[in-house]
Design goal:
With 196 residues, the chain is an alpha+beta fold. The chain has 2 domains: 2-88, FAD/NAD(P)-binding domain (3-Layer(bba) Sandwich), CATH 3.50.50.60; 99-170, FAD/NAD(P)-binding domain (3-Layer(bba) Sandwich), CATH 3.50.50. Helix content is 26%, strand content 12%. The chain has 4 helices and 4 strands; from the N terminus they run H-E-H-E-E-E-H-H. It has helices at 2-8, 29-41, 99-104, 147-170; strands spanning 15-18, 45-48, 69-76, 82-88. The strands form 2 sheets. It has a two-stranded parallel ribbon with strand order 1-2. It has a two-stranded antiparallel sheet with strand order 3-4. The chain starts with a helix and ends in a 26-residue tail after the last helix. It binds flavin-adenine dinucleotide. Flavin-adenine dinucleotide binds next to helix 4.
Length: 196
């Protein structure tokens, strides 16, 4: 996002604050090197190993929307920095809204708010074999929350739903259909327009 903003608005001053020693820590170090090189080329100031002070009430967006800020603001870090900016964007991840499932089947919503599923992508409650969860809302065995992850899982869920419908239509009530099992795909990332 920082690269895209810098590429689109080359006259803007941009600062990226990252708490770890590597950008995109879930990926191979090569990606960090490439991203850092490009950020540097685009003139983005990159601060690694420092953390933004969040409101005591919790994560931004969840309990305190004020951290996402349009208009002049000062961002302070635990490292003692004060950074003035006209716009502040938090890119600390999103939390899916699983309230629907919490109302319907509270037992399958984990403490982290994600829906517990089986390898078949059915929710982890055998009394509801016709309920599936895919995408960001589901705890997908370590798969990252990304469009391609949800896309892959959705294909398998659709396949399994069709198998269940066909089995039910055939009238064979004794043998459950052999459902396809989900294997998380490796994290991958698309190239933004600013990646060159
Ligand atoms: C800034 C940003 C950049 C990203 N870039 C990439 C990228 O480059 N590549 C990539 O693969 N992924 C990327 N992602 C992640 C990707 O967008 C998500 O992983 C993906 O959209 C998840 O799809 P989903 O269908 O599970 O959830 P969502 O796309 O979040 O869809 C869930 C939908 O359910 C709706 N909803 C919630 N509750 C209810 C309810 N009770 N009734 C009806 N509807 C409800 C929500 O409003 C929402 O529209 C990015 C995400 C962000 C935020």
């Amino acid at each position: 996002m920082a690269c895209d903003i810098a590429d689109t608005y080359p006259d803007k001053r941009l600062t990226l604050i990252h708490p770890h020693d590597r950008i995109l820590p879930l990926f191979k170090p090569f990606l960090h090197e490439q991203a850092t090189r490009r950020l540097k080329e685009l003139g983005v100031e990159v601060i690694m190993g420092d953390r933004v002070i969040l409101p005591a009430s919790g994560r931004p967006g969840e309990t305190d929307a004020s951290m996402e800020h349009v208009g002049p603001t000062v961002t302070r870090t635990y490292g003692g920095r004060s950074i003035e900016a006209d716009l502040r964007i938090f890119a600390t991840g999103q939390r899916p809204n699983t309230q629907l499932m919490r109302d319907f089947l509270p037992g399958v919503v984990k403490p982290n708010g994600l829906v517990a599923i089986q390898r078949t992508l059915q929710v982890d409650d055998d009394r509801h074999a016709n309920v599936y969860a895919v995408g960001d809302c589901a705890d997908q065995f370590g798969a990252i929350q990304a469009g391609h992850t949800g896309w892959n899982a959705a294909g398998i869920a659709a396949e399994n739903i069709v198998k269940q419908i066909e089995a039910a239509a055939s009238g064979d009530k004794l043998s459950a259909p052999a459902l396809t099992l989900y294997e998380p795909t490796k994290p991958c990332i698309g190239r933004a327009r600013s990646c060159r």
